[in-house]
């Protein structure tokens, strides 16, 4: 699929329901972000603070729900050959869960991160899921859930507040299959 075709498969505010707004676009990669304590992620060059998958065609959309900064959901759609999507997505998710704890260095900040594999929903041809917990200096933590589903030549990835991801993954997969 072309990028313009993929865009038509992204979730919209109407798909999500009342209370959702588009989130400001964030940079896809930060040059000053590195990983310590997880050779698998470091070797892949994965940026755990943002997009992790690197395929030929990609589109993204981000939304917030209400006013809480932790109530966000981001969608990424990727299109490529099914075998390449499966291999690449599995490699990234396996790298994350191979290191249940590591440190994310962002500029001068050191952020402890924990990952935990969870059961992926039975949608599409293949699925992967994990929780990622970021611990801030103030003692607070932000938990995100990341779910990726491959359906044919498209990978649908939702990241964000666990309840929001769980609530919208079916709609995201359906919309990726049948834009509307």
Report what the structure shows.
The protein has 180 residues and is of the alpha+beta class. The protein has one domain (3-177): Protein Transport Mog1p, Chain A (3-Layer(aba) Sandwich). The protein is built from five helices and nine strands; from the N terminus they run ααββαββαβββββα. It has helices spanning 3-7, 13-16, 39-44, 82-98, 162-177, and strands spanning 20-22, 33-36, 57-65, 72-79, 101-106, 109-117, 126-135, 141-151, 154-160. The two termini are 16 Å apart. The model has no long low-confidence stretch (mean pLDDT 86).
- Can you tell me the CATH superfamily? PknH-like extracellular domain
- The low-pLDDT segments are none
Number of individual domains = 1
Q: Any idea what the radius of gyration is?
A: 16 Å
Biggest sheet layout: 9 strands, antiparallel
Give average pLDDT, whole number. 86
CATH classification, class level: Alpha Beta
User: What is the number of E strands?
Assistant: 9
- The CATH topology corresponds to Protein Transport Mog1p, Chain A
H/E series, N to C? HHEEHEEHEEEEEH
> Going across the major beta sheet, what is the strand order?
1-3-4-9-8-7-6-5-2
Number of helices: 5
């Amino acid at each position: 699929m072309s990028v313009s075709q993929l865009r038509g498969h992204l979730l919209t505010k109407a798909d999500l329901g009342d209370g959702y707004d588009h989130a400001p676009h964030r940079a896809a990669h930060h040059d000053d972000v590195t990983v310590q304590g997880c050779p698998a992620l470091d070797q892949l060059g994965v940026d755990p603070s943002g997009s992790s998958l690197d395929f030929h065609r990609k589109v993204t959309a981000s939304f917030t729900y209400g006013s809480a900064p932790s109530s966000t959901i981001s969608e990424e759609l990727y299109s490529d050959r099914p075998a390449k999507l499966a291999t690449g997505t599995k490699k990234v998710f396996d790298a994350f869960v191979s290191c249940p704890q590591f440190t994310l260095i962002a500029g001068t900040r050191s952020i402890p991160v924990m990952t935990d594999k969870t059961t992926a929903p039975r949608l599409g041809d293949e699925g992967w899921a994990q929780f990622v917990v970021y611990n801030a200096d103030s003692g607070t933590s932000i938990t995100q859930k990341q779910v990726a589903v491959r359906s044919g030549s498209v990978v649908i990835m939702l990241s964000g507040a666990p309840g929001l991801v769980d609530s919208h993954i079916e709609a995201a997969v359906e919309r990726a299959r049948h834009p509307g």
